[in-house]
Amino acid sequence: MRINKFLCATGLCSRKAADEYVSRGEVLINGRLAVLGDKVSKHDSVTLKGEKVNLLSVDDVIVIAFNKPRGVVCTANAQTENNIVAFIGHSSRVYPVGRLDKESEGLIFLTNKSGLVDSINQSGNRHEKEYRVTVNKTITESFLEGMRHGVSILGQTTHACSLIAESETVFRIVLTQGLNRQIRRMCSHFGFRVERLQRIRIMHVPIDGLAPGEWRDLTADELSPLLNLVVDKNSS
Fold first, then answer.
1. 101 is an active site residue
2. pLDDT digits 0-9 by tens, 64-109
3. Structural domain of residue 43, as residue ranges?
4. What is the pLDDT of residues 39-52, one digit of tens each?
5. Residue 171 pLDDT > 60, yes or no?
6. Domain check: are 145 and 183 in the same one?
7. Residues 108, 64 share a domain
8. What is the CATH classification number for the domain harbouring 84?
């Protein structure tokens, strides 16, 4: 893999920061100065600022589930006010898997394993995400059917999805896409405005038991299928 991806996969830095380390001459591969674009294998010795670095082992992988409150921004950029990483204050370097927009709330993963971020975020993998949505007026059957069968937004038609009404103004929806502000745009297409949007499940992990602003480590049973995504991707 490329040297910046390798350094990112150690959990020590982002790819952008890795490029900066390489540019400053702080990275060695088998004793020689690394250059941007260099590739490394598991047999190579890589040092950063004089210290040997290794890919994360399974025991070192961190994945947490966080119930994001409204107003928290899903970025690892330390310059962004109320960013998710600073809000959580985890002792290890973790970054969000995907995003929820600032006005939305609910379940999001954070991890120190870059390959996991890529595997979950790739739209072609069609991983389910479930949301509870409150809108500004009474839900109609034509609205539900229109949402289920696909909506034209951002130059494409959304995938067919599962949708069920919970009350006159609240519905649950299961998506396998992650288009920008997808649910808000879909609702707007039918003349509805989203008043509250909460993600309540990612794949096999529900938000149950997490109050807004709380986080927890994933259990071994929850983590195993996620790690298998990375194994399957690397072996394909």
1. yes
2. 999 999 999 999 888 999 999 999 999 988 989 888 999 999 999 9
3. 3-54
4. 999 889 999 999 99
5. yes
6. yes
7. yes
8. 3.30.70.580
